[in-house]
Automatic annotation (TrEMBL):
Protein name, as recorded: DUF642 domain-containing protein
Keywords, ordered alphabetically: Signal
Gene3D superfamilies listed in its UniProt record: At5g01610-like
Pfam entry (one): DUF538
Signal peptide interval: 1-19
UniProt entry tagged with the keyword Magnesium: no
Length: 175
């Protein structure tokens, strides 16, 4: 007679435990809700959110090394003012520090007929310096207040937003 009572008690405990929310699940959910977005991470490092196109579905950040990754559900490309073509792989990687993204992988710009990788973005006051290695271009930080959208960039609602250049030549050596 003791065995049926024990098995009935165990069944009741199991049924009740499955119908009640787990406290560890609640803690995990609250923790996830408190995580900043990839765009907020950029802001924490004094970089504008518009460096990343809309649609980031995940990211990773190692605060010890600064290793940073952003993930989309696919590749992302768009044009700005019809002359600057940008392409983001489904995952971009690099290192983030105050005012800088370095050793970038997965972001390219089309120059004339070839695609070159943007490997470094550095904030210098109100300007952002983009480097493709031995050459670079500067743009006002104001150009990156809004996140571009994959496919249409900053011209998705029919309203064209101008990109203002600081240097007269795109990706001209700064040395």
């Amino acid at each position: 007679m003791g065995l049926p009572l024990l098995s009935t008690t165990l069944c009741l405990i199991l049924m009740l435990s499955q119908s009640l929310p787990s406290s560890s699940l609640l803690q995990e959910t609250n923790f996830i809700d408190q995580n900043p977005t990839a765009y907020e991470i950029l802001g924490d490092y004094d970089l504008p959110k518009g460096l990343l196109p809309q649609g980031v579905v995940g990211y990773s950040l190692d605060t010890t090394t600064g290793k940073f990754s952003a993930i989309w559900n696919g590749t992302c490309s768009f044009s700005l003012e019809g002359s600057y073509k940008l392409s983001y792989k489904s995952t971009i990687n690099g290192y983030i520090s105050k005012g800088r993204l370095s050793r970038l992988e997965g972001v390219s710009v089309k120059l004339f007929f070839i695609w070159v990788d943007i490997i470094d973005v550095k904030r210098n006051g109100d300007d952002l310096e983009f480097s493709v290695g031995i050459a670079g271009a500067d743009f006002s930080v104001d150009n990156f207040e809004v996140c571009p959208q994959c496919g249409c960039g900053l011209n998705c609602d029919g309203e064209t937003r101008k990109v203002s250049k600081i240097r007269s030549n795109l990706f001209v050596s700064s040395s």
